[in-house]
User: Fold this.
Amino acid sequence: MASVDALLSNTSFTIAEKGKVTFLPEPERQERLYTFISVDDHIVEPPDAFVGRMPAKLIERGPQLIRRGGADIWTYDGQEFPNVGFNAVVGRPVDEYSFEPSRFEDMRRGAWDIDARIADLDLSGVYASLCFPSFLPGFAGQRIQLSTKDAELALATVRAWNDWNIEAWSGAYPDRMIPCQLPYFLDPEIGAQEIYRNAERGFKAVTFSEAPHMLGLPSMHSGHWEPIMRACAETDTVINLHIGSSGTSPSTSDDAPPDVTGVLFFGYAMFAAVDWLYSKIPVRYPGLKIALSEGGIGWVPALVDRLNHMLSYHEMYGTWAGIDMTPAEVFLRNFYFCAVEDPSTFALRDVIGTEHIFLEQDYPHCDSTWPRTQQVIHNEIGGLPADAIRKITWENASRVYRHPVPVDVQNNPDAF
Assistant:
């Protein structure tokens, strides 16, 4: 495994010239062929995200943005976090892609400004979007909790981020944004209380770590997370496991070129799926919904085959004794799979379950299909039956995340 933080510190992984910033010409509004909900986009937290939302006694140690050495830097509890943009590269040439930019003016404004984001969703034909945090919190909020020894500061910062999201980001356009909260890891009982509280405020999802043991926290097999799992099940809060939320990425040898890690980045989605499956959390909570964000779908049929193959000797382990459903049946019931560009796998949609496939745009990261999202969707699934297209493009996400789509938009992607 490769450490994501180690990757961030390696500026030699790309040929991009540091400091060179080029914005491509403004793209035209794309032809809207499909109503579409993207279940994976990202936020670059704006400069005022935490302003007025931290307790007075914690403001100085809480997240603050400063300019130093020509870069925008977040400070937090005496530490500095310089990767403000973290791969917010849409609208830039590919040869400038990196883990920068480190200044807000070097990003497309839609990366951090909600009004500009909506304009960019309109441009690429995305009706609604679920957004994950970016570099400062970490994909599951782990950085702002594990980089400090002050649990009170960590909890206040998680709450401030969630307050900002529901008030100023998702709350600014409630018809277009699906609210997704940060979890509180450091005390599962308090974390569960936050899930209940945030469900009442309108949050539909939580971004959780795919592998908390890789962060130095208890594993999914320990029983430690039971209060949070129960709270998610009882509030119908979808658990999103975004690749990289373990702080690691699959890799091979230390001297392998960086492309190797890039190709394998999706792989932890499969590892996480098996780990969570055999924790039997989905068995204990049969209604729990677990989405493997940005994990792709190509590996899913192969894993189903492997799970079924192991039925011939799984009794030797005893792990699954006394459970009526097979591991593959539980896997296909509780997990949902998110595709960016997986054109060859849609032919196997019946193995995966058409009702369990989402699509994503991944704005503003380098994997993003923006602004050509509608054409990518058409190339991938345009030849499928109409009912399958409807489910994959918006209906599944609308149902699972409980985000209604107006009838006129359902029938006409130009209606918003």
Remarks:
- The two ends are 43 Å apart (CA to CA).
- The domain at 2-415 is CATH 3.20.20.140 (TIM Barrel).
- The mean pLDDT is 94.
